[in-house]
Amino acid sequence: MGIMSKVFGGRAEKAGPYLFKELSQQFLDGVAKALADSGFKRRGRSYAFVRPCASGSQVLHFPLSKYDDRFVVMPAVNVRFDALETFVNRYAVNRDEKTLKHKSSIGMTLGELAGQAEPLRWTIRSGSDVDKALPEIDRLIRDAGLPYFERFQSLEALYEIVCNQGEQGHIPGNAERAINCVALAHLTSQSDRIPDIVQHWRAVFADTNDASATFFEGFYRNYSRNHA
Q: Strand, coil or helix: what is 107?
């Protein structure tokens, strides 16, 4: 039996008028109880459930998109590497200070991890929808989410997969991937590879006419001044 089906094994509240506050609270309270045994705790009043790990934190995120007659859940898995984020923030330009504390380093939706062409979404209009959705989400967490955490436990693993193998889905945006590749090369004692990394990404920016190149160049300029 899955971690969530233990909580939602019985009948949820009787279907009735859509009430976002009550249903979203039911959903999130149930998630909190179900994930507690695995070490995940809700971050304040957010939709994130966090578990500390040696490299930083592992996050299961349950964003709720609110509509007039329903809300939609699209769960995601994220990992924060504290050393990486600290290093990047030291040299990056135009970073939002309010979001830095909880910014994740990598992540994907559960649907993407499960190999779906489109992100998986669950629509909640009543308690019975909660009762139906949670076991399905639980299965994806066990089958795809938890193995993702196992896969990304070190900076070396992140460098190998994102930089060497070029897997793109984990980090959105060329600028952020380029910045992280430089930072990861430095942090994993592979600074000799940084010139080739920079050359590669400058070619990518030129080919795609990507305006975000300015953020990469700002980071690399600040980094170079301190690591000549």
A: strand
Q: What is the CA radius of gyration of the chain?
A: 20
Question: Of 79, 62, 73, 48, whose CA–CA distance to 151 is shortest?
Answer: 79
DSSP single-letter state for residue 15: P
Which of 90, 99, 115, 80 is closest to 218 using CA atoms? Answer: 90
In the three-class reduction of DSSP (H, G, I as helix; E, B as strand; rest coil), residue 59 is classed as strand
pLDDT of residue 76: 94
Name the amino acid, one letter, at 213.
A
d(CA 203, CA 130): 48
CA 148 from chain center: how many Å?
11
* Digit-coded pLDDT (tens) for 203-214: 999 998 888 899
Residue 175 Cα distances to 61, 68, 93, 157, angstroms: 24, 36, 12, 20
In this predicted model, what pLDDT tens digit does every residue of 19-45 receive, in sequence order?
A: 888 999 999 988 887 888 889 999 998
Contacts of 96 (CB under 8 A, 6+ apart): none
CA distance 64 to 45: 12
